[in-house]
Amino acid sequence: MAFSDKSRESLIPSFLYTTSTTRAMGFNRFSAPTSTPAASPAVGGGSFMIQAPKEKIEMYSPAFYAACTAGGIASCGLTHTAVTPLDLVKCNMQIDPVKYKSISSGFGVLLKEQGPKGFFRGWVPTLIGYSAQGACKFGFYEFFKKYYSDLAGPENAVKYKTFIYLAGSASAEVIADVALCPLEAVKVRVQTQPGFARGLSDGFPKFVKSEGYLGLYKGIVPLWGRQIPYTMMKFASFEVVVELLYKHVVPKPKSECSKPLQLGVSFGAGYIAGVFCAIVSHPADNLVSFLNNAKGATVGDAVKKLGLLGLFTRGLPLRIVMIGTLTGAQWGIYDAFKVMVGLPTTGGVTPAPAAATEVAPASA
């Protein structure tokens, strides 16, 4: 995974990065305060761009968070779109278990009724919705992880790092789901009600006409119930598994591992984390599908129809396969993007809060 400057530049669109000149214009306003008063920064257009790949990105700088946001877009948007057929069968199994009795029969029913094109029904709201979610999920996670680490202080940040991972991911997901919820509502309606709409362009106005704009957020509480535990498990278990892999499986420290090996660790840890994610968040996933499919439906209606056991088990094997693969691929893509722009992969080494580097010279 070692990239030359030219290969990195060719892989990243020019609008995603900026040169040192534009960075000086755009990023000075975000720099940390120094001991001398800074002159008023010039106004530039590169405030939220990623600096040129051949120039090292400073950790926790605006460019760092912009890179993490871009990596999150690629990570979540591409992977969720790729597994649209699995998601389509899963949603229909949750809504109509009599017709869609199993994974294999579900694919058979869809193929017979809608043809091969039917497997990707709803891919546009999936792509846009999960790209927006990924941007907020990964970008804000990196922000909150650093923010909470600094609040805790150097010693507590290490001692309670798992709690920081949990808090940071939960905070990020609250924001990410606000971006996802309207598109998730349209996606489920398009996928589970044949004839409702062809996709986002006609499905969105039809949904709004039927449910109103507030109806787009009818599923926000169940979505939080599904996604917040899912994301807390996704990020915290990933960080823990990565650390364990480097400690007990990989025969050398992370700093001595090649980039391909580090990315392999990211994918493996992501897949393991995905299995836990699927189990923890599955009941809420059933609720989201049920509420977005039936007008005026309530959580009580869902529990009554699906049953308590059904909430935990209906569609679970397929979702474990889907989410495990999805989560592994997401961490692989996210960390590959970070490597491509010159950043380290996620996890394996606990980052020292800023305060730790400040007190070190005083004790020397």
Structural class: mainly alpha
Ranges where pLDDT stays below 50 over 5 or more residues in a row are 1-54, 350-364
Number of helices: 15
Task: Give the overall average pLDDT.
Answer: 81
What can be said about the biggest beta sheet? Answer: 2 strands, parallel
How do the SSEs run, as a string of H and E? Answer: HEHEHHHHHHHHHHHHH
Structure description:
By secondary structure, the protein is mainly alpha-helical. Helix content is 70%, strand content 1%. It has 15 helices and two strands. The longest helix has 35 residues, at 259-293.
Tag the structure with descriptive keywords.
mainly alpha, disordered C terminus, two-stranded parallel sheet, disordered N terminus, 364 residues
In summary, what is this structure?
The protein has helices at 5-11, 20-27, 62-82, 84-95, 103-114, 123-152, 154-159, 161-192, 200-211, 220-249, 259-293, 299-306, 308-313, 316-340, 354-363, and strands at 17-18, 50-51. It is mainly α and 364 residues long.
